[in-house]
Automatic annotation (TrEMBL):
Plays an important role in the de novo pathway of purine nucleotide biosynthesis. Catalyzes the first committed step in the biosynthesis of AMP from IMP. Its cofactor is Mg(2+). It catalyses: IMP + L-aspartate + GTP = N(6)-(1,2-dicarboxyethyl)-AMP + GDP + phosphate + 2 H(+). GO terms for biological process: 'de novo' AMP biosynthetic process; IMP metabolic process. The lineage of its organism: Bacteria, Bacillati, Bacillota, Clostridia, Lachnospirales. SUPFAM superfamilies: P-loop containing nucleoside triphosphate hydrolases. GO terms for cellular component: cytoplasm. Belongs to the adenylosuccinate synthetase family. This is Adenylosuccinate synthetase. Gene3D superfamilies: Adenylosuccinate Synthetase, subunit A, domain 1, Adenylosuccinate Synthetase, subunit A, domain 2, Adenylosuccinate Synthetase, subunit A, domain 3. One of its GO terms (molecular function) is GTP binding. Pathway: Purine metabolism; AMP biosynthesis via de novo pathway; AMP from IMP: step 1/2. It is found in: Cytoplasm. CDD domains: AdSS (cd03108).
Length: 426
């Protein structure tokens, strides 16, 4: 059977920790979308790691870690991550890479940078990892699948054609150095060496694993708000962040995804531009940012300070629904212990109309938060393992949000470690 771990919000909800925790009982962990533009932070016995490409199961020796066909595969980043974890004492993980995964090419990263430069103040706040140019090429059918590395003649030919087209833009739009197909070819040959031992038919492997009764985790990146269809377009990412896309991006039957665990953080945070209705500013924001996550709310990939705000029930209810949530994991609750009272955004006011339905982007830009304020619990809740042992106001906070979002909170994370978790019956 398959479980998916996905985000309800803007990413950074703590999916890495939940995946790492669930991976203790899983056989296979699959990344099915996105690229090295976002990261998961994981704290375990080996130390603290920021993973961008490797699935969060790489720290166990009983799991197989898979890069599915839906991923934007950055081969040098993957190699660097493998080297990094193994140099810190983690045993070499079992990794498989889909022969249909496409590669982030060196020019995708350049185009991402050049386009952000060109846009200046109108930019999307890209992490400049090449993700948007990568997916543009994928859907324009000019991308490169990993299996193409093994067919030298056709690869050479295709690179020549690609450079011809790219060079027109480089010369006339961006005024930057031109690409040379032969240099690219040589680089790709070094990439081939890096991935050759891992490349296989992943969907066939997963099909067989399912027949054998193996447990598979699909690990999502970012969250519902960043989905190109259902999120805050155009301030979204370029591949679907939804559990449903897991079937496509891993190559598994949709009906096998039995559990969809949607992760949502006890307050909000976001990176990059875009509407953020319950955003906080000034000292209040600075304090939450400093105390947030595990060592502050700063991007795992970029180190950028994250925007922070109060919990948004409108966005989260929608975010959970669009994921097809069966279980909610409510994370980073321990951080809120310093507050006397905690505002929660329960509705949006759009031009005087109050709504709890998440609107399209134009209306979202106009939305003002409607808050209800709950009393804080004013104590440390890390270390607590039973729901009944949480302070009453803390339980009330959880139950209030559960009621507003309409999906059962069955896991509560009260610290970054694997064991900092409280399970709750549905
Ligand atoms: P992801 O991309 O969804 O995996 O989220 P990130 O890894 O970017 O952000 C989550 C951050 O919060 C990481 O630094 C985690 O170690 C940390 N974290 C996860 N769960 C908890 C929790 O319950 N409490 C605290 N204090 N930190 C947590």
């Amino acid at each position: 059977m398959i479980k998916a771990v996905v985000g309800a919000n803007w990413g950074d909800e703590g999916k890495g920790k939940i995946t790492d925790m669930l991976a203790q009982k899983a056989d296979i962990i699959v990344r099915f979308q996105g690229g090295a533009n976002a990261g998961h932070t994981i704290v375990n016995n080996y130390g603290k790691f920021a993973l961008h490409t490797l699935p969060s199961g790489v720290f166990y020796d009983h799991t197989t870690s898979i890069i599915g066909n839906g991923v934007a595969l950055n081969i040098p980043v993957l190699k660097k991550e493998v080297d990094d974890i193994t140099s810190k004492g983690v045993p070499m993980p079992k990794i498989l890479i889909s022969d249909r995964a496409q590669m982030v090419m060196p020019y995708h990263i350049l185009f991402d940078q050049y386009e952000e430069e060109r846009l200046g103040g109108r930019s999307f706040g890209s992490t400049k990892s090449g993700i948007a140019p990568f997916y543009s090429d994928k859907y324009a059918k000019t991308g490169f699948q990993v299996n193409e590395l093994f067919h030298e003649e056709t690869l050479r030919e295709k690179l020549k054609n690609t450079c011809e087209v790219k060079n027109v833009l480089l010369e006339h739009l961006y005024h930057k150095p031109l690409l040379d197909p032969e240099t690219l070819f040589e680089e790709l040959m070094t990439w081939r060496e890096m991935v050759a031992p891992f490349v296989c038919d992943v969907s066939a492997y997963l099909w067989k694993a399912l027949k054998e009764g193996k447990e598979i985790l699909l690990e999502g990146q970012l969250g519902s708000m960043k989905d190109p269809d259902h999120g805050i377009y155009p301030m979204v990412t370029s591949s679907s962040t939804l559990a449903g896309y897991g079937a496509v991006g891993a190559g598994v039957p949709p009906y096998e995804i039995k559990e969809i665990i949607t992760v949502t953080k006890a307050y909000s945070s976001a990176v990059g531009a875009g509407a953020f209705v319950s955003e906080l500013f000034g000292d209040e924001a600075e304090e939450l940012r400093r105390r947030g996550g595990d060592g502050g709310e700063y991007g795992a990939t970029t180190g950028r300070p994250r925007r922070v705000g109060w919990y948004d029930c409108v966005a989260s209810r929608y975010g959970c629904r669009i994921q097809g949530t069966t279980d909610v994991a409510f994370t980073v609750l321990d951080v809120l212990g310093y507050l006397d009272e905690i505002p929660v955004c329960v509705a949006y006011d759009i031009d005087g109309e109050i709504t709890t339905e998440f609107p399209t982007t134009g209306l979202l830009e106009k939305a003002r938060p409607v808050y209800e304020t709950l009393p804080g619990w004013k104590c440390e809740i890390r270390g607590i393992r039973k729901y009944e042992d949480l302070p009453e106001n803390c339980r009330k906070y959880i139950e209030f949000i559960e009621e507003k979002i309409g999906f059962p909170i069955t896991m509560i994370s009260n610290g970054p470690g694997r064991d900092d978790i409280i399970y709750r019956e549905k």
